[in-house]
Records
---
Amino acid sequence: ELELVKQYITGNLLHSFDGPFATSNRLKVLINSGLSNQYFSEFSKNINAISSGEVLEISREWLSPKNFTLSVVGKW
């Protein structure tokens, strides 16, 4: 599943550069955010390099069950 998500994210990134107007919008993002010209290239490399262990480690750090909200619809 991780490989599928990596391909999906990479495909969306490539699609965001489809055509001159989309490419100019990406350039505006770089300029307005103060990012380097290599940002999208590095982003793509990082997405493709991440391992399932790293995803698990990050999720343990950022997804704490004590911060979750339970929502019940219907009978409990």
Note: The mean pLDDT is 93.
---
Amino acid sequence: MSKLAPSIAGIACVGIDCADPPALAQWWQQLLGGRLETYDDGDARLYPPDGRVIDFYQVPDGKTVKNRLHFDLASTDYRKAVKEAIALGATTADDVYDGTSWQVLRDPEGNEFCILKPSSH
């Protein structure tokens, strides 16, 4: 299959719009690990150990609807991973999905993410 946009090298990072980039980036750092950078303009960047980059951008408007894009996090111990995320301040999002295949959670600013069972990835 030929590439239709050969000048595009790939995804550089994933950006998250939020009210408090340093605080939200620090929360995600507690969940994922990695190195955190904050910038004078109020934005932040997280370098998790898996090599992906997450940018946190300050925006004036709050989250109003379900995310169209979200993280699916792999786990080695599903129940423990869900408990750890909740202990850090995540909340369950059973209004989005209330099944047994994975757990949908929300970060402190309401962004949904999923924790997958080890066999799910």
Note: The mean pLDDT is 93.
---
Amino acid sequence: MNSRWAPYLARFHSEHAGVTEAVLSRLRHPAGGVYDWVLEALDQSGRVLDVACGSAPSWSSVGDGWIGIDFSEAELALARRRGARPLVHADATALPVATARFDTVLCLMGLMLFEPLEQAASELGRVIDAGGCLVALVPATRPVRTRDRVRYARLLAALRRRHFAYPEDPEHIDAVLERRGFDVVNSERRSFRYPIDEPVHARLLIDSLYLPGTSDERVARAQVLTRRWIGTSIGVPLRRLVAVRRPV
């Protein structure tokens, strides 16, 4: 990772361990929750490596054959407290895993954080057996309702940001995977609703955002803004990717 993102992400996940799961678990859709949507694309009968597993929300659903890897000790500590095992402290660009060891790699809200993504994608491909697949969840910019688009514009204005940023552009992930030995066979977008029922939910939404270089004053202004939305919900667009590992 570069000098800007690496220390920021380390500090973020130390201070806000579990925040990603907290937000994703609150998202609502008529067809079901986020984790149900992702796991329905997963072959849970095989060996599953959960890269950037965080607080291990997938562990209890996958069961035997699951291994979680994350670079954040704070996130892994939460995973251990819920009983998730086995867990490994490592970076996605250098996985301490044997070649072709897994049938599936699962990566929830992590691919856009890996830097360099080309190297991480090579590592993900290396540890997947030929014909196995990568199932990933990444942020998206659509579909978004008009009212939500206006709200996001106001939120970005309060934060004095032009857009929400990540080390890697989520829209470029497909091309990187294709270059690194994967065939992207499915890319589906879905907009979930995040209910803001209480002040804690407004705060949680802001706490979950990656905002390097944003002042505390600006973050406080964003918190004030989102508290005005209590009693409503905001759309959160996400994209589910399924990529099959090509034979070497």
Note: The radius of gyration is 18 Å.
